[in-house]
Amino acid sequence: MDHFTYVDGAMLAEQVPMADIAAQVGTPVYIYSTATLTRHVAVFREGLSQIHDPLIAFAVKANPNAAVLATLAKLGLGADVVSAGELLRAIAAGIPAERIVFSGVGKTADEMRIALEQGIYQFNLESEPEAEMLSEVALSMGRKAPVAYRINPDVDAGTHAKISTGKSENKFGIPYDRALASYAAARDLPGLDVQGVAVHIGSQLTDLTPLEAAFIKVGALIERLRAEGHDIRTADLGGGLGVPYDPSQPLPPSPADYGAMVTRITQGWNVRLMFEPGRLIVGNAGVLLSQVVRVKQGAQAPFVIVDAAMNDLLRPSLYDAWHDIRAVHPKGERAAANVVGPVCETGDTFAMHRDMDVVGAGDLVAFMTAGAYGATMASTYNSRALTPEVLVSGDKWAVVRARPPIEALIEGDSIPAWIASEGVQD
Ligand code: LLP
């Protein structure tokens, strides 16, 4: 559910007409709803209500905007980060280090040092060489790093191949069968305090079965690790719960269903449970607002050319992702259309043969469910400025990331003196 609704034929973001934002900020622009963010946190918490003191660490990669993170910090969330950049962003937005977990296969020594200085809650290790490096870095600082190993349970998450992470051929985690040996080796590393187990099998999961299979494996591993004398105190169950993108499709499992399954599977584990939801918190809390530049006749359906492109919202190009596209002022007519951006690639296509509101040049359209992995994956491809972002709360709204001027793109590069001094060849 979200707070982008129609009142008197016009789409509002909470109480703010989307057209007002377009008029003042221009398009394309991402718009986030505080009420939806707040509701999603509450619904997720409610789903976990049978679990004692869970750590809900928002996956910052889904939406690292400072205002979004500050909103989530106020709601008591922690952060799951995958780089020093995300870590420092989370801390700057008010998320305390003791609620931060650091994931990722390629943490560098510098990133480890920064995280240790900040005093984060847990490092999720993804390989033995990483464990050795972290131990050395921690020792050099006179610290012990709190760690879990992320295990790769070899479970098919049943999602898009590019966002599936728990199969043995994926780069993530340590193989389940090697886990006991990896933990035994980690215990001998003097800079580490081995405290937990972690798992994350993929994103946009629409079925609980693979999650349940992965969690059962985690439970069995915790027992075996304890039998070998490891003091396991945490279990990080990752993120991955899917959100509804296409209203014609069945709803994904609810946070309540997820919470009931987790409660059932983790009974008796006697650990602090951690969760890393990203999309579930922010997906439906954001839309990408765009304006139709022109409509061009196509061989089959018309091409609706909008001013947003694959550089603003990459998901359709990269994962064939489906985003609902709605007119901000629907005229009551629907027809099939191809919705494309101005970038010079065929992949710059948001939808083909989509039955949607009829729109014409100058009309505003909203790409729904764009709050997760939207602005954060934007680029300046085709020398287009990065997409600005707006946060709405009730009848208030603010630009929380401004649209940079095109000059900034040009001035960002520099031309070496030898080119400037040589002049133009005849
Ligand atoms: N934890 C870890 C270790 C992760 O790698 C991820 C996402 C999450 C948590 C959060 O997953 P979520 O709850 O959001 O599903 N750009 C892709 C999604 C990539 C997800 C990467 N990892 C997309 O637009 O669909």
TrEMBL record:
Record keywords, A-Z: Amino-acid biosynthesis, Decarboxylase, Lyase, Lysine biosynthesis, Pyridoxal phosphate
Cofactors (names): pyridoxal 5'-phosphate
Family listed: Belongs to the Orn/Lys/Arg decarboxylase class-II family. LysA subfamily.
Main EC class the enzyme belongs to: lyase
EC number, UniProt record: 4.1.1.20
Biological role: Specifically catalyzes the decarboxylation of meso-diaminopimelate (meso-DAP) to L-lysine.
Domain Orn/DAP/Arg decarboxylase 2 N-terminal positions: 40-282
Alphabetized Pfam families for the sequence: Orn_Arg_deC_N (PF02784), Orn_DAP_Arg_deC (PF00278)
NCBIfam families linked: lysA
Active site (UniProt): 344
Domain of life, source organism: Bacteria
Organism: Sphingobium indicum (strain DSM 16413 / CCM 7287 / MTCC 6362 / UT26 / NBRC 101211 / UT26S)
Residue ranges of domain Orn/DAP/Arg decarboxylase 2 C-terminal in the record: 33-371
Binding site for substrate: 279, 315, 319, 345, 373
Name this polypeptide is given: Diaminopimelate decarboxylase
PANTHER family listed in its UniProt record: DIAMINOPIMELATE DECARBOXYLASE (PTHR43727), GROUP IV DECARBOXYLASE (PTHR43727:SF2)
Record-level Gene Ontology MF annotations: diaminopimelate decarboxylase activity; pyridoxal phosphate binding
Binding site for pyridoxal 5'-phosphate: 240, 276-279, 373
Gene Ontology BP, a term: lysine biosynthetic process via diaminopimelate
Catalysis performed (reactions): meso-2,6-diaminopimelate + H(+) = L-lysine + CO2
Pathway: Amino-acid biosynthesis; L-lysine biosynthesis via DAP pathway; L-lysine from DL-2,6-diaminopimelate: step 1/1
Location of N6-(pyridoxal phosphate)lysine modifications: 61
Complex and partners: Homodimer.
